């Protein structure tokens, strides 16, 4: 039995589906969630809910949810309630309870569909493909095989997610992404794709990106920078994407203090570096970090800086020094950048 058929059989035997997005869900997670919901509906599940943690602050992500008319609820300790045999719990675009999501560690998950580099993935149904460029590619494959109706909203969401996750097929794209995009192309709404691709940008995001430019440190082909304190968490990947395009830069890591944690976003085109592994090596003992060869991210609780007040004028400098030292060790950078 194929993975698509195996998933459908599991869904067909259930009455309720809850999909838990990872914290601060992006288009790949959101489109995959939308597609899983459509498959569940085809399997006869009428009770479906989507939960998320963190925030949805990126302009593109907010536009995605609004334009595709998705209904999401913020995760709370009471969100799951009493689960029975007819209730399924699913992860898409992430894999482990308690890692980049609000579920307590060890919570049993029924369905896991992901493409990130992680170990020890468990579930009644697991499709974990690290060699695929986007989770949306896997769901697009399911939709095709199961002959689920591909209306404009679903096709547009999946196609946009694949394009966004692979930076227009330039980062981590495989033949599977091209095949999926080809199948979705004629069903997608071109105007909606254009709108999703060009959302308005807030002044706070521009300020954060500007700060990352001012604070950059370049060692060889590696650029490290920070934005200080920001409420614009999603400015970090936007800053990393921009700084990675600077002449001579092959690897860019941008971090900032967001609420009670240090958030990181990284990009690389250097074939010698697996940026997800580098971030994991640098911060796995103090937080959650990882990702793919070409892109990664992480979150470090501020608790590792015990003894310093978050309103201390020196605090940002302390964070900068500690984070850059760890990154320099992990990326094997010399002080001069040689």
TrEMBL record:
Q: Where is the DDH domain?
A: 18-162
- InterPro entries attached to this UniProt entry: DDH_dom (IPR001667), DHH_sf (IPR038763), DHHA1_dom (IPR003156), Oligoribo/pAp-PDE_c-di-AMP_PDE (IPR051319)
Cross-referenced Pfam families: DHH, DHHA1
Q: What GO MF annotations does this protein's record show?
A: nucleic acid binding
- Annotated ranges, domain DHHA1: 222-302
What is the designated name of this protein? Answer: Phosphoesterase RecJ domain protein
Record organism:
Halogeometricum pallidum JCM 14848
Lineage, opening ranks: Archaea, Methanobacteriati, Methanobacteriota, Stenosarchaea group, Halobacteria
